[in-house]
Every structure is written in C-alpha cells, then in structure tokens.
Amino acid sequence: MEIKKAIDIAKNVRKNACAENYYVGACLVSKDGKFYSGCNIENSGIQSICAERTAFVKALSEGEKQFNYIVVVGAPKNSTVLEKCLPCGYCRQFINQYVDKDFKIYTCYGKNNTIEAYSIQELLPHAFTL
Question: Is the pTM of this model over 0.90?
Fold first, then answer.
C-alpha cells in the first residue's frame, strides 16, 4: 500500500534531521506516485526549515507541480515512539500555495502506529491567497 511506503520513508528520513531536540520526517507523494522526502534542518539563526517544506522544495525544484498527500512524523530525538505531528502554521501556508483544498496531511504516531488524516483546509481554514 502506497501510504505505508510513504510512512516508512518519512520514518527513515527523520533519522537525518539536523536538530537539537525534535526530529521530524516527511514524505510528499505526487499525483503520479513519486516520493519526495525531507527532514527538519535547524541552525542557530532564523533560517531553519521544517521537514514538510524540505520535501516540497525538493519536489518543486525538480519540476513537480501536482501533489497527492504528505506524511509527517515526529518525536524527540532519541524516542522510538512517534508523537502526533502536524505542520506548523508557516508550513501550512506554504503547502496551501501548491495544493488543492482536498490535499491530505497524514500523521502516524503512538505504539500502535495510529494514522490520522487532515485536509489542508481543515488545518488552515483561513489561508492567505494570491
């Protein structure tokens, strides 16, 4: 199943996070089934980037324009149990610019790997638009 593969990719790329405390992984899936992964990359300045935007920037920079959904997973650095993790406000607005209102954001968490889905419109009901 495609969602399971995306979850596994997000979990795996999470290990590459460059962060002090909280490691996040994301896997963006295009309409034609391509996978784009990303992890959070923090620094001491204000230019840190979240896993979701990393995945989107990779996809967009390769010419991808049509997106199906994204999986986001996160937890403290050394934790083996994922926490419920959803995009921050900045990421929600960023994502909204490149997707339709039904675009799904999945998170997987807990010892039982609970999967929840939200539409971008649910998470950002009053988005800025161009």
Answer: yes
